[in-house]
């Protein structure tokens, strides 16, 4: 597995971003679905990474700098053809290392509470994330779960 930085313009990445957004909107009310679109993933405060096996896209993740030593994990998604192979864990480990390298002291994330998010929530808990308060302008909602990890 090779982790690459950038690559939002690759057709396979565009398809995975579109799938990620469609499924987020299908499982969470629109006002509570916060998945970034392609332009959001290319923002100046965002580092976008993908995982590949040769020419096959395995997954994606992003790190958004929130300032003051705080960053956010965004757009964590494994390609449906590559689930349960450790892709998300590898991407999470890469993003955690990157956040530390960039000097962040805390990494937070917002995820859903619908059943489709259960596996991701278990992975975040296993990595040491704990429930926290809404951050970064997100409103509190029963459809969203906010988690944080001291780095």
Short description:
With 151 residues, the protein is of the alpha+beta class. The chain has one domain (2-150): Gcn5-related N-acetyltransferase (GNAT) (Aminopeptidase), CATH 3.40.630. Helix content is 30%, strand content 32%.
Residue stretches low in confidence (pLDDT < 50, at least 5 long) are none
Q: Which topology does CATH recognise?
A: Aminopeptidase
Fraction in beta strands: 25-35%
Work out the count of structural domains. 1
* Oligomeric form: single chain
Q: Mean of the pLDDT scores?
A: 93
| Portion of residues within helices | 25-40%
Tell me the CATH superfamily.
Gcn5-related N-acetyltransferase (GNAT)
- Total beta strands: 7
What's the tally of helices?
4
- What is the CA-atom radius of gyration, in angstroms? 14 Å
Highest-level CATH class: Alpha Beta
> Which strand order does the major sheet show?
1-2-3-4-5-7-6
Shape: globular
Largest pleated sheet = 7 strands, mixed
Report the end-to-end length measured between terminal Cα atoms: 25 Å
Structural category is alpha+beta
Would you identify the CATH architecture? Answer: 3-Layer(aba) Sandwich
In sequence order, what are the helices and strands, one letter per element? EHHEEEHEHEE
